[in-house]
Amino acid sequence: MKSFFTLPGGFGAGAVGSATYTAVTAVLEPEYYAVATACQYLAQSVGQVGGLAASGTILRSVLSKWLRKALQGRDDADTIIDQVLGNTSYIVRLTGELKGIVLKGYVISLGACHGLSTALNGIAFALAIGLAERRLS
Description:
Elements: H1 7-27, H2 33-70, H3 77-86, H4 89-93, H5 96-129
């Protein structure tokens, strides 16, 4: 059921891609459609790679900081943090309170990633409002 939470984002990405293509082709002569489409796909790919890299960096950073704070005072804190960040199958082997702490850290980290995504989408939306549609010549 939780996988359905990704549905609005996927729907939004599809709608934006279609709307962008429609807007671009509305202002270009037909002989430029191929170049515009290639540039659009390039920009989307670069944006996806950049977003994925930023999300991964934020996830690791927030998770590491949160775990350091939550595991403060434990002798094995550094080992646990290294294992959690380096091997997701390690989490399956955890039990009890430690597993709860690690899972809560992941939830908080994913929340930070979603916050980044929401902020960047808001910026993109605000910039898109200011775009004027006019024929390029």
